[in-house]
Amino acid sequence: MVDVSLATSWPFKEAQKLIKRYEKAPPAKGYVLFETGYGPSGLPHIGTFGEVLRTTMVRQAFEALSDLPTKLFVVSDDMDGLRKVPTNVPHQDRLAQHLGKPLTSIPDPFETHDSFGHHNNAKLREFLDRFGFDYTFVSATETYKAGHYDSILLRILQHYDAITNVILPTLGPDRRETYSPFLPLCPETGKVLQAKVIGHDTTENTITWQHPETEEALTTSILGGHCKLQWKADWGGRWAAFQVDYEMSGKDLMDSVKLSSKICRILGETPPEGMTYELFLGEDGDKISKSKGNGLSIEDWLKYGPTESLSFYMFQAPQRQKRLFFDVIPKATDMYLDHLESYTREDSLKQHDNPVWFIHGGHPPAPESPLKFSLLQNLAAAAHAEDTSVLWGFVKRYDAALTPENAPFLDHLLGYAVRYYQDFVKPYKTYRTPTAREIEALLRLRNDLLSAPQDTSAEGYQSLVYAVGRDFGYDPMRDWFRVIYEVLLGEEQGPRFGSFIELFGVQGTCDLIADKVGAA
Asked: Which of 186, 197, 380, 444 is the most exposed place for a label (fewest CB within 10 A)?
């Protein structure tokens, strides 16, 4: 039987931290708790999904190493006050009237849910459910109001000065004057206030604070949702309240992790294990933002690539900064297909390190065909495809046994290829006029293809293409292939051309050459 403790992929390395955490005794709560947080101030984006997916991958690796039960909490910080109006939602003027209020107290600009927070929470859960994640959703608003945080709030009140002293050195002079772990909710407006706390009472479980506008002194209970915690105290308090064992976070939160960990220890609990991942960049190299909406949405990706390709992209090098824009989808799709194909040839240990083992919960499907997404994209471009029916004609000629019914994933790939071609290739496609020498080389290629045996393989066609390039003195050979791509396909890069010929057909390729060089 394979020893999965020898697996070296990053989820297994992360899971080993939890193995060491409980090597002496199991958790008193009876399970190992994974957690991920979500700030619902904007619509859910791919970064949010990626954190849940990556955490789930670590959980999967841990479950392969240990028999301890596990849970995953997805916590929404929906009691946070809205600081600014997102730019990608309707009725922004209405939202502007509710700045400072908890997200779950603000009317839904989409007019479909009880509040803006409820709307965004629903969007997150809808997507996570679509992927089949096993998780427990936790609303901060419900947790505060139902009293589930009360015991930890009391502990924070008891350690008020110690926790305050952790945060004060990180603040500027003005914020030091008003900082408190507790943020009261204004009894009149319902806003979450950055108010100066002038007293706290561990007997009455209250804070006394100065209203920032009227300067009136008010006393508020810290329990039952009348107060919420400042961000770093809230994170550390949540870890302590739930006894969280693992939570990863972005590079921008490294300092917050350190401070929240100190607070968690002050409260008598052990901070979770975790990993710091790099942030995604948008098209122009800037950090993606929920409020700006400058990155890919989940819907954007799934319009042009399968869910498996998105999962693969999230698995790949989480601690390396990567662009997250439309042009990464084709490569991620092909890399997923490559790993799916190699999985069938690997031993059990290597399979546990293969991304598809994580993507498919330990049970990857068998590949349906060897056709790559990049090849299908170029087929769509060469055929000027408007729908998948044309592409299926080529596929059936390539392999008569393939049908949309017995190869549904391939059918989906064809649909993605057509949409990607229509939206990103066709509007910018530019065919270069060939030189006299290039025309001569392409006509020679056409004649050689027409003379090739009918049973020539993709490799045979590829060798034929190479031979023509060598005979015409192309060195390096990529210059010859650039001619083929730019003149025949209207693109700077393209597929392995022997495979393209096999799929597009010899006659189709020859007709394409004739059309582009003006030959009869």
From this structure: 444
**CA-wise closest residue to 83 among 101, 68, 71, 105:** 101
pLDDT value of position 292: 58
- The span from the CA of 220 to the CA of 213, in Å, is 17
CB of 135 closer than 8 Å to CB of 72: yes
DSSP H or E segment with residue 137 = strand 136-139
Q: Say how many C-beta atoms besides its own lie within 10 A of residue 5's C-beta.
A: 12
Q: Which amino acid is at 452?
A: A
What is the Cα–Cα distance from 313 to 331, expressed in whole angstroms?
Answer: 9
Element (H, E) at 19: helix 10-21
Give the number of residues written for the chain: 520
Global pTM reads 0.90
Count CB-CB contacts under 10 A for residue 269: 19
| pLDDT value of residue 420 | 94
User: What are the angstrom distances between the C-alpha of 184 and each of 76, 155, 193, 374, 427?
Assistant: 19, 17, 6, 55, 54
The pLDDT of residue 319 is 94
In this structure, what token pair is assigned to residue 293?
């909406």
The per-residue pLDDT for 360 is 96
Backbone dihedral angles phi then psi of residue 41, each to the nearest 5 degrees: -75, -20
Which bin fits 224, alpha (ψ -120 to 50), beta or left (φ > 0)?
A: left
Triad 310, 311, 316: Cα angle to 5°? 100
pLDDT at residue 124, as a whole number: 83
CA dist 291 and 295 (Å) reads 10
Alpha-carbon span 43 to 189, nearest angstrom: 25
Identify the pLDDT of residue 1: 64
Q: Could you tell me the two tokens for 443?
A: 């006509």
Tokens 């992790």 identify what position? Answer: 257
265 burial (CB, 10 Å; 0-12 / 13-18 / 19+) is middle
Phi-psi region of 188 (alpha: psi -120 to 50; beta: other; left: phi over 0): alpha
Provide the pairing of β-strand 206-210 with 136-139: unpaired
Rounded to 10 deg, the angle between the 506-517 and 497-504 helix axes is 110
DSSP character string of 73-129: EEEE-TTSBP-S--TTSS-HHHHHTTTTSBGGGS--TTSSSSSHHHHHHHHHHHHHH
Q: Is the preceding omega at residue 476 within 30 degrees of 0, hence cis?
A: yes
Q: Give the pLDDT means over successive 10-residue stretches in the chain (520 positions).
A: 90 98 96 94 78 96 98 96 88 92 94 94 86 94 95 98 97 92 96 95 97 94 96 97 97 96 98 95 68 70 95 96 90 97 96 98 96 94 92 94 96 97 90 94 96 94 96 95 94 88 93 83
Q: Containing H/E element for 209?
A: strand 206-210
Give the gyration radius of the chain's Cα atoms.
Answer: 29
